[in-house]
Please model this.
Amino acid sequence: MDKKVTVIGAGNVGATAAQRLAEKELCDVVLVDIVEGVPQGKSLDLAQAAPIEKHDARLLGTNSYEATEGSDIVIITAGIPRKPGMSRDDLLSTNAGIVKKVTLEVAARSPEAILIVVSNPLDAMCHVAYEASKFPKQRVMGMAGVLDSARFRAFISMELNVSVENTHAFVLGGHGDTMVPLPRFSTVAGIPLPELLPPEKIEALVQRTRNGGAEIVGLLKTGSAYYAPASAAVEMAEAILKDKKKILPCAAYLEGEYGIRDLFIGVPVKLGRGGIEQVIEIRLTAEESAALKKSAAAVQELKNALAKLSY
Ligand code: APR
Model:
């Protein structure tokens, strides 16, 4: 393939993203992890599925960074989940340390790459990658809104018994409890959701979307969601690799848009070869705007906590 995507972290999200990238024949894939054998084994397994899945993407698993050189995109999924006895700040500083280290490694070898951050806490990890890479803001983004919107769309389609392809949804804000699903801009075959469902039903879908990640953690018991997160990261990568100019909600570094400054937060952006080619500013109601500001305040709190930690 003439494009190369590096996926850092060969765990559930990383390996599934590698699979989807290869099976869509978007690019060659380099899978990196610190655990010896895992990226090599998973890449080999995926390569052995290639004749059946009918793709010619090359897959390489490694514990070092040489093979990542010249990547067009780097998807960062490395990190550890929260363990018993670990505070949020412990997780924040551990994952910040991991994301910083891997970003320095990839940025040195792929100075023109676009970074898609998936590791949690997402909005804070975007800051770490932005600062460590020193890349322009257009080339550092976080995957959250695409996943949250896909969850909202899945729930809308289940509720109304319509094709997921007929659904469209918008979720803004940080990737957490304060995310801001926007029913007004969510549609089924172009019909706004408020015309199709009563407010209490919409509120229930919104709540389920907010709780989407936790619902899956509760069911899986060990580990968190990975099929949909991987799909979401790959949709972003595809939009960039194919220069699609696709408008998707992503965590972007804002400098005044939506009245928010120096913060990564989920907003609609246009994705193309240059990464974030435009931040789309939609006019929000006072209520929607207040919800976005509240979400920004929660992200700011996390950013402040990050500033106090050494990692
Ligand atoms: N360099 C490379 N890989 C690393 C490093 C590092 N310094 N530290 C940890 N990893 C790897 C782990 O070895 C593991 O294989 O990151 C991988 C993480 O995989 P999982 O634990 O399976 O986690 P996953 O479900 O894939 O989630 C990854 O995405 O959605 C977010 O919250 C989620 O932050 C988490 C991330």
Observations:
- The mean pLDDT is 95.
- Residues 8-14, 32-35, 77-81, 98, 101-102, 118-120, 223-224, 226, 229 surround adenosine-5-diphosphoribose (CB under 6 Å).
- Residues 24 and 55 are 8 Å apart (CA to CA).
- The longest helix spans residues 286-308.
